[in-house]
Amino acid sequence: MTGDLRGKAAIVGTGHAGFGEARGLTAYDVMAQAGLAAVADAGLSLADVDGLFCTMMEDSMPALMAAEYLGIQPRFVDGTMTGGSSFVNYLTSAAMALDVGLCDVALIVYGSNQRTASGRLVTASRPPEYEAPYKPRYPISAYAMAAARHMHEYGTTREQLADVAVAARAWAQHNPEAFERGPLSREDVLAARMVGDPLTVRDCCLVTDGGGAIVMVRADRARDCPKPPVYLLGSAAASSHRQISQMRDFSTTAARESGAQAFAAAGVAPGDIDLVELYDAFTINTILFLEDLGFCAKGEGGAFVEGGRIAPGGVLPVNTNGGGLSCVHPGMYGIFTVIEAARQIRGDAPGQQLENIDLALAHGNGGVLSSQVTAILGSGNTL
Amino acid sequence: MQEITGSDQTFRRALANGEIALPKCDSCGKFHFFPRVVCPHCHETALSWRRASGRGEVYTTTVVRRRSEQGGDYNICMVELEEGVRMMSRVEGIAPADVTIGMAVTVYVGEIDGQPAVLCRPVEG
Ligand SMILES: [Zn+2]
C-alpha cells in the first residue's frame, strides 16, 4: 500500500467468537458468530456487506463457503491464502477495493474449531515433498530451527525466549477473554516438556477454537459509525519462501521489508508506535519481528524482551491481549493482532486498556516464517 | 517417442542409483535445490546436473521429541552442501541432541522407510 491510501479506509467494527472451546460448533458457525458481532459493532447488518475477505483451513474455496453460509452475495471477494498473515493482508486489499468503489462495506472474517474438532493445529497443506521423508513436525520444527540459529548467531538464550511467554501470560492475566490466565514463570517455561529443541510446550502457541472479524469502510462513512474509527495508515506484505528449507536466512524474516514499506506508507517510524501486536506462534517470533520491524537492532531482540520489558509496565507494550501464546490461537491468529490493536486505539480493549494509544502496529506471519504482513493503524489524531 | 524427464524425476532416479544430483545453471553457474525447470537465481532455463561432492555443514538443527514407545527422539537438520544449496536432512550415527550448528558432515544416500533419502553423518576425526 502506498501513501495514497493513508487514512482512506477505517476499521469501524470488530468481533470475535468461540474463544477457547466452541464445543458443538463448526468452523463456519464460529466464523458467522464473529462476523455478526463485527457488523453489529459497526452499527451495520450482514445485508450491508458487499465485500468479503476470508480464508479458512476447511475448504479449497472457503470465501465462497462463508458467503454462502452468511447468505450474502458480495461483489468483491478476496480469499488469498498466505497462512496466518492473510487477514492482515486483507486490510490492504479491502482498503484498495473500498477506495475504488469495488465495495462499500468490507467484512474480513475467520473462524476455526480446531481445538474441539481435533485438538491439533489444523493444516490443509500436504507436507513438502523434499522435507516430508524426515518427518518434521509442522510448524514447530521450522520455528525450532529458526530459534536454534538465532541462539547460535546472536547468543539469544532460552531464558529470553521464556520471557516472551511470561510477558504474554502477564498481559493475559488482565484479559477475561484470554484462554490461559494462570501464573507462569520463566522457570515454568524452561521446565515444561521439550517439544522441539530449543522450544518447550510453553514456547508454543495455544491450540484453541475461535473466530474474529473486522468491518472496514471508507473514511467518510466511518465517521457515521458508532465506534471511533481506526484508520489504516499503512500496510505492506513481503514473502521470502514457502517451505522452511527454502528460507535463506533463518534469523531474519521478510518482516524487514513489510515493516519498512508499511512505515513509509504511514509516514511514521518504530519510535512513534505506542503499541505492538505481533503474531507470536512461538516465542522466537516475537524476538524476530521486534528486530526485523526495527524496534531493536538485529540480534538484540533477546535482550529487548528480557525481564518484563514487553510485559505490563515495561518499555513497550507487546501483545496486550496475551497473544497467541496465552489468549487465543485457532490455527491462524493474524486477525487478532488487528482486533486487539483496534480496540486499544478505540479504548475498549478487553484486558488492560492502555492510555493514549494513537498509533499501533499489527503484524501477521504466515506459513513457516514465509509471509510477513505489517499494518499500521491510527486514531483520528494521526490523520 | 522420446520420454520426457522432469527435474524431480531426474533427481529421484539419481537418488535411486545412490547419487545426489544437483541442478546447476549454465548461465549464472549457481546450483539450486529443490530441482526445477528454471534457475531461481537468474531465471534462465538451461540447466545441467552435477553430482554433489558430499561435503556439507549443519546450518541449523532441532530434535523432534517423541515417546520412546513410538521410536524415540530424532534429529532434523538443514544441511548446507559445499555447492551452496541447502536441504532438509537428518544426521545419523550420533544422538539427535548432539548435532550442532556448524558441524561438518558427509552427505550420503541412505534410506528412510525403504526409500532412498539424503542423510548425513559427522565427518570422522
Ligand atoms: Zn542462473
Number of helical elements of chain A? 13
N/C terminus separation of chain A: 16 Å
Mean pLDDT reading of chain A: 96
Domains of chain A (count): 2
Radius of gyration of chain B: 16 Å
Question: How would you describe this protein?
Answer:
The complex is a heterodimer of chains A (383) and B (125). Chain A is α/β, with parallel strands linked by helices and 383 residues long. Chain A folds into two domains: 3-119 and 208-229, 3-Layer(aba) Sandwich (Peroxisomal Thiolase, Chain A, domain 1); 137-192 and 234-382, Thiolase/Chalcone synthase (Peroxisomal Thiolase, Chain A, domain 1), CATH 3.40.47.10. Chain A has helices at residues 27-41, 62-70, 86-99, 114-117, 140-154, 158-172, 186-191, 219-222, 255-266, 283-292, 301-305, 323-326, 334-346; strands at residues 9-20, 51-54, 76-78, 106-112, 194-196, 199-200, 209-218, 230-239, 275-278, 359-366, 371-378. In chain A, the strands form two sheets. In chain A, strands 3-2-4-7-1-8-11-10-9 form a nine-stranded mixed sheet, with helices on both faces. Chain A has a two-stranded antiparallel ribbon with strand order 5-6. In chain A, strand 2, helix 2 (62-70) and strand 3 (76-78) form a beta-alpha-beta unit. In chain A, helix 6 crosses helix 10 (283-292). The longest helix of chain A has 15 residues, at 27-41. Chain A is globular and about 50 Å long. With 125 residues, chain B is mainly beta. Chain B folds into two domains: 7-51, no CATH class; 55-122, OB fold (Dihydrolipoamide Acetyltransferase, E2P). Chain B is 8% helix and 39% strand. Chain B contains one helix and seven strands; from the N terminus they run H-E-E-E-E-E-E-E. Classes of the chains: A alpha/beta (383), B mainly beta (125). The structure holds zinc ion (ZN). Zinc ion binds at residues 25, 27-28, 30, 39, 41-42, 44 of chain B. Zinc ion (ZN) binds at residues 25, 27-28, 30, 39, 41-42, 44 of chain B.
